[in-house]
Amino acid sequence: MTKKMGYRWNLRKIMAERDMFATTDLVPLLAERGVHLSREQVFRLVTQPPQRLSMDTLAALCDILDVGVADLIEITVVSKQVRKAVGETGKAPAPTVRRSTIRRPEGL
Fold first, then answer.
1. Cα separations (Å) of 49 from 14, 34, 40, 84?
2. Where do the structural domains in the chain lie, given as residue ranges?
3. Least buried of 25, 29, 65, 108, by fewest C-beta within 10 Å?
4. Interacting residues of 69 by C-beta distance below 8 A, sequence separation 6+
5. Does an H or E element contain 15, and which?
6. What CATH architecture does domain 4-79 belong to?
7. 61, containing H or E segment
8. Strand, helix or coil for residue 5
9. pLDDT value of residue 64
10. 3-class DSSP state for residue 72?
11. pLDDT, tens digit, 9 for 90 and up, residues 13-62
């Protein structure tokens, strides 16, 4: 059985709920907590789910927004558990091969 996990990054939504719409508003608030990120880094942090995130940044965001980690990062199941039938190998079927014919336009 396989189960693939994912997550939903809720920073932008939580900021909007607190009437924080400019990503640059976070720059000085993070700096007050010892996290120094450029405007571009904060923009990416707000607009894209991060692949890596320091614990200092995560703790600072939780403090700034007065939320817990589970509010910022919502764990989801991307694909459900699938049981393989007896005899299944788990391999995808081979693609169908189609031959093509290249025809030149007349007069060339």
1. 14, 22, 14, 32
2. 4-79
3. 108
4. 58, 62
5. helix 11-17
6. Orthogonal Bundle (1.10)
7. helix 55-65
8. strand
9. 97
10. helix
11. 999 999 999 999 999 999 999 999 999 999 999 999 999 999 999 999 99
